[in-house]
Design brief:
By secondary structure, the protein is mainly α. It is built from 13 helices and no strands. It has one domain. 76% of the residues lie in helices and 0% in strands.
């Protein structure tokens, strides 16, 4: 029996109280956002019932996005994403301070190829891949771990609308973060070593077009990987193993026959890279898919995955005790 108080119990009680307060604050914010969006819709005089429902869904998607984007950028799980995003920037800062003495780094003509290698291996296949995995898988799996998903399910919002709002919030977060990483990384690899040549390359040469192309590829990667990892977070209680299997599939894409190459995100992204890089002597040669097919193909595949995710969330039941 504790006469003068039990520090362990007091600490546990304070921790439980703070968790309860956080949940209640989130519940109040969610209710206020969704109810305000519903009220704004019904205050306006709609032309038809269908237009009213569509307007309500769009407002609810926007309300959910505003809540989730803030959580994605400033929540406790954002630290890992920031560390991952800083990895290529930190590496290129070290290279800028202590440049390698190899012949490729002394020849400016090789710099577009060098950045293409770094972008493909480090930024696209590692930072964007695992960053999207962490952001999108936690959109629903993180709510299950925090035991807060029922607040959304009990609110006056359709589940497919909830899925759309969460997906777009993850998309906004990943696109902003990884586009900045892409731009900063490309500038860091050029300007610290050959400033004058880099200015001419970006202002008078193909540098600006290549920069925007890489940013566009990053955005498409966030769209495609985001949809896949969203559905992984919905279907699997432990999404790490499916994520690693998908990572292996993407890395071994160069060994796959041409037909199987098309069942991957990286195939469509590599077809858009402005400076192609050799995949090695063991790669199975396949014709790159032209841009007018790569972009629609990736978007169609993303839509199909989101349709499956929408079907899954409509039948989803919450079992906190098993997570």
């Amino acid at each position: 029996m504790c006469i003068n108080g039990c520090p362990g119990l007091e600490k546990a009680g304070l921790k439980s109280l703070s968790r309860y307060a956080a949940r209640e604050r989130f519940k109040a914010e969610l209710k206020r956002e969704i109810m305000s969006s519903s009220a704004d819709t019904f205050q306006a005089k709609p032309a038809t019932k269908q237009d009213s429902s569509r307007s309500l869904w769009l407002r609810q998607v926007a309300a959910i996005m505003s809540l989730e984007v803030e959580k994605n950028f400033f929540g406790k799980r954002a630290v890992l994403v920031y560390l991952l995003a800083f990895m290529p920037i930190g590496l290129l800062l070290m290279i800028a301070i202590m440049p390698p003495g190899t012949r490729d780094w002394l020849d400016f003509a090789q710099y577009p190829v060098l950045f293409s290698i770094i972008y493909n291996a480090l930024i696209l296949r590692t930072v964007v891949f695992f960053g999207c995995a962490w952001i999108f898988m936690n959109l629903f799996r993180g709510e299950m771990v925090d035991r807060s998903l029922h607040y959304y399910f009990l609110s006056a919002v359709r589940r497919d609308v909830l899925m759309a709002g969460k997906y777009f919030s993850g998309l906004v977060t990943s696109v902003i973060l990884f586009s900045v990483v892409t731009v900063v990384s490309m500038l860091l690899i050029f300007f610290p070593h050959f400033y004058s040549a880099s200015v001419r390359f970006f202002l008078d040469g193909p540098g600006t077009i290549q920069l925007f192309t890489y940013v566009g590829i990053t955005i498409l990667a966030c769209i495609g990987y985001g949809a896949f990892f969203l559905i992984v977070g919905l279907f699997f209680r432990n999404p790490i193993i499916p994520a690693l299997l998908l990572y292996g599939w993407e890395w071994l894409n160069f060994l796959l026959p041409p037909l199987l190459k098309k069942i991957s995100v990286i195939h469509y992204l590599n077809s858009l890279v402005p400076v192609p890089v050799s995949e090695g002597p063991f790669a199975v040669v396949a014709e790159p898919t032209p841009a007018w097919l790569s972009v629609p193909g990736l978007l169609i595949m993303t839509v199909l995955v989101l349709v499956v995710a929408g079907s899954r969330i409509r039948r989803m039941e919450i079992r906190y005790g098993s997570d």
